[in-house]
Amino acid sequence: MSASTTSTEKTDHMGASGIDGKVIAITGAGSGIGEATALLLAERGAKVVLGARRPERLEAVAARVKEAGGDAAWVRTDVRRKEDLAALVKVARDRYGKLDALVSNAGVGLISPLDDLRVEDWEEMVDVNLKGVLYGIAAALPVFREQGFGHFVNTVSTAGLRIVPLQSVYAGTKNAVRTISEGLRQEAGDSLRVTVVSPGAVRTDFTDRLDPALRAQTDKLMEIALPPEAVARAIAFAIEQPDGVDVGDIVVRPTAQG
Fold first, then answer.
1. Which one, 38, 99, 104, 225, has least CB within 10 Å?
2. SS3 23
């Protein structure tokens, strides 16, 4: 299939609703929320293009999609490299001829007291959580403009809604994405959509790189945490809306989370 989009394809898209047949690229798709989202969207008929840093995880997720009768492609993607985001979008267009949505889900949460001066951790969160989303916008926005349709779904966090100690930089990067997303929504016009999804505590590998003391503290929160599938359903809800309906902001958290 050609990477270009014909006028017929545009018309067909504008008359469609739901998820079936949409081409959706997902970063951070090797585990957690990204993996759950890929599996759910593929189950509902989407063609998913998976991006993450670990090829073995991408192969495993793609295999699960295909075993269930779905369609998946993958490309190793480090969101800190703008070339990798461009390659992810290119794979979607080369294989499927279009890109309906980009789910920018990759993120890291290296929480610590500011007094610890973990500048390298701060820089990594800025590079992954913030610049990674910007690189995705830079890769997909020209494609969406050319097609005349497209949907950005950006995963942020309730950490940006309720600021607490240890999460200052993490929350700052997530709130920066929230601000950029709102600006993008206002600039997007009537043919593009922008959604921000703010998960609360979710059972993922979020705590794996934390110091043991901080991990023990955070693991207590994991006792009430949501399964990743709960966030995946929220993402699917936004994507499945008919054209012209823009779900701007979704908060998904455990009922027991303060």
1. 225
2. strand
pLDDT profile of the chain (258 residues), mean per 10: 36 57 98 97 98 97 97 98 98 98 96 95 98 98 98 95 92 97 96 96 74 71 88 97 93 88
26: helix, strand or coil: strand
Alpha-carbon distance of 176 to 199, in angstroms, equals 16
Tell me if residue 170 is catalytic: yes
Residue 41, CA atoms < 13 Å, CB-side half-sphere: 36
Candidate list 74, 135, 170, 206, residue with the active-site label? 170
What is the model's pTM?
0.89
Contact 198, 252 (CB under 8 A): yes
CA dist list (Å): 6 to 97, 98, 147, 164: 9, 10, 8, 49
